[in-house]
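Two records follow; treat each independently.
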Amino acid sequence: MKTSAKKLAQKRAAKNLRDQVYRAAIKARLTEELGAACANCRAKDRLQFDLIHPVVPRPGTMSSTSRLALYSQLHKLGNVRLLCEPCFKHKLKTGQLPSTPPPAGL
């Protein structure tokens, strides 16, 4: 590998690492600000962000950095909450949150 190609690869690797650290910090801050628990059942593991009133059709198609930036902005407007994976899946299937915590296998 040529020296310039090696330097370019090192710069890309450093940028990727910085991006990962940035995304982890934003995610941790948002999670903490949202109470670090499912808004529905108060579970503390397998949490994911949920838009209360969707403003984009499929946030999952966005880059993770763009998605976190969107969640940060929408959090300021009170439009983001944390849901555990079972509650989130139930919401996706039925369109509403479960009234009781869903079974762990859902």
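The next record belongs to a different protein.
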Amino acid sequence: MCGHCVKCGTWRPSLHNDHVIPKWAGGSDEPSNRQWLCANCHEDKTKAELQSRAFKDRPRERKPRRFKPDVSLSYTARYERRHATPSGIVLREKPN
């Protein structure tokens, strides 16, 4: 079919019959769910739909744990890291 693209409005000698709401998203083959697009607009719309579908189907990422023990450090290094002041000075108690 030739005519004007619904999306960009340019006249083209050939148009693609496109679903407004994709069939995978619950769209139907009804005439009200169809539109005529040029090849460029149809390709752009298809890419956008595939990206949104991939984003929707992607598993959610887990939030990082708030506390992750640093087992690679020695006891002294962990103590100094826990008891350091903002200036980096470690306050130690004096032994009796």
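Discussion point: Residues 84 and 90 are 4 Å apart (CA to CA). How would you locate this feature using only the token line?
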